[in-house]
UniProtKB/TrEMBL annotation:
SUPFAM superfamilies cross-referenced by the UniProt entry: Periplasmic binding protein-like II
Name under which the protein is recorded: Putative aliphatic sulfonates-binding protein
InterPro entries: ABC_SsuA_sub-bd, Solute-binding_3/MltF_N, SsuA/THI5
Domain of life the protein comes from: Bacteria
C-alpha cells in the first residue's frame, strides 16, 4: 500500500487512526527554564494530565497512586486519560489536552512530522518478543515473502507499523505489494479472527492474548526496541519541577516492577479480564528500567524517522534532535542514580 505524501499529511493532522550530547543539544531550542527548580507549587497548575495505555508503565504508576499522593499534597491532582494506542494519545497532546504520554518508537515520529510540540524525556527497554506479526495457525503464510498480495492489519503510526515496514525493507519487498489495513488493536483482532485480514502486526498485551488462543502462529519477527515518555514542550518549559517529580516516580516504579512481575499481573488481571499467566509472561519478556535520552536513543529514533520518510509514509524529513531537551536543562530533570 503506497501513500502519497499529501494524503499522509492529511492523516497526520488528525492521526485518528527518557544525557543528551552537546551536538544534539545545539539543535534544540532551549526551553525558558531557570537554573534551579522550585519545590513549591507553581501558580496556575491545578492538574497534570497524563495519557496511558493499558498494562503500561504509566498504567502501573496510575494504579500505585504514589504520584497522585505526592502532587495532591502540593495542591495538584493528576488527571489520567486512557488510550488504546499511541497515535491518538499524541493527537490529544497536539491539541493541548495532555501534558505527559507514554508511547512506542513510531508515534513520536508521526507526531513530530505533524507539528506536535513535545520533548522526549525518558525511555524504557522493550524485548524482541513483545511484538510480532502473527497469522492464523492454518495459514499458508510461512515467511515475510508470503505476505505479498496479502492484507495485514496494524495500527498506523504505531511500533507495529514500524516493525512491519522494517521487515519488508530487510527483505526487499516493496510496500506496495502488501495491503495495509489500518485498524485499532480491538478492531484488528476482530478482523483477524473473522478472516478479513491475513496477518496482524501487534504488541503486548494484545499479542499475548491472541497467542493464548492457540489459533495463531508467530512469524518470530520481533526486535528489541524502546518505548518513550514524552512531555509537551509547554509543560516542560513552565513546570520543570512536575516533570522531575514524574520522572523520579517513573524510575521508582520501574525498579519495583522489575522485582514484581507476578504481582503486577495479578493486579491487572481482573481489571483487564486477561489471565494472570498471560500478563506475567508479557512482564517477563519485556525490559524494565528508566533510561535517559542518550545520543544512541536519538540516533535510533532518527533511523525510524528516515525509514518512514523514505517510504513516503510521513510527509517530510524531520530531525529528532530538535525535540530533545538541551543537556544542561535535562540534567536538572532526570533522576540521579
Amino acid at each position: 500500500m503506497h501513500l502519497k505524501r499529501r494524503d499522509v499529511l492529511f492523516g497526520l493532522l488528525g492521526f485518528s487512526l527518557p544525557v543528551i550530547s552537546s551536538s544534539c543539544a545545539n539543535r534544540s531550542e532551549a526551553p525558558n527554564l531557570s537554573s534551579t527548580t522550585s519545590p513549591t507549587p507553581q501558580p496556575g497548575l491545578s492538574a497534570v494530565r497524563i495519557g496511558y495505555q493499558r498494562f503500561s508503565e504509566l498504567d502501573l504508576i496510575r494504579t500505585r497512586g504514589e504520584l497522585d499522593r505526592q502532587l495532591q499534597q502540593q495542591g495538584v491532582k493528576v488527571e489520567w486519560s486512557f488510550f488504546q494506542s499511541g497515535p491518538p494519545m499524541l493527537e490529544a497532546m497536539n491539541t493541548g489536552s495532555l501534558d505527559i504520554a507514554g508511547v512506542g518508537e513510531a508515534p513520536p515520529i508521526f507526531a513530530q512530522a505533524a507539528g506536535t510540540q513535545f520533548f522526549y524525556i525518558a525511555s524504557t527497554p522493550r524485548g524482541l518478543k513483545t511484538q510480532d506479526i502473527v497469522v492464523p495457525k492454518t495459514s499458508s503464510i510461512q515467511s515475510p515473502e508470503d505476505l505479498r498480495g496479502k492484507k495485514v492489519a496494524l495500527q498506523r503510526g504505531s511500533s507495529a507499523h514500524y516493525l512491519f515496514v522494517q521487515v519488508l525493507r530487510d527483505r526487499n519487498i516493496p510496500i506496495e505489494e502488501v495491503e495495509i489495513v489500518p485498524l485499532s488493536p480491538a478492531d484488528a483482532r476482530a478482523a483477524f479472527e473473522q478472516g478479513t485480514v491475513d496477518a496482524w502486526s501487534i504488541w503486548d498485551p494484545f499479542l499475548g492474548v491472541i497467542e493464548a488462543t492457540g489459533n495463531v502462529r508467530n512469524l518470530n519477527l520481533g526486535r528489541d526496541r524502546r518505548a518513550f515518555f514524552l512531555a509537551s514542550q509547554n509543560f516542560v518549559n513552565t513546570y520543570p519541577d512536575r516533570v522531575k517529580a514524574f520522572l523520579l516516580e517513573a524510575k521508582l516504579t520501574e525498579e519495583w516492577g522489575q522485582q514484581n512481575a507476578r504481582a503486577i499481573a495479578q493486579q491487572f488481571s481482573e481489571e483487564l479480564k486477561i489471565d494472570v499467566a498471560i500478563l506475567e509472561k508479557a512482564n517477563q519478556r519485556r525490559g524494565w528500567g528508566l533510561l535517559p535520552i542518550t545520543p544512541e536513543a536519538i540516533a535510533a529514533q532518527q533511523r525510524v524517522a528516515d525509514t518512514f520518510y523514505e517510504l513516503a509514509i510521513i510527509p517530510k524529513s524531520i530531525q529528532v534532535a530538535e525535540v530533545t531537551v538541551p543537556e544542561q536543562i535535562y540534567a536538572q530533570l532526570y533522576p540521579s542514580t
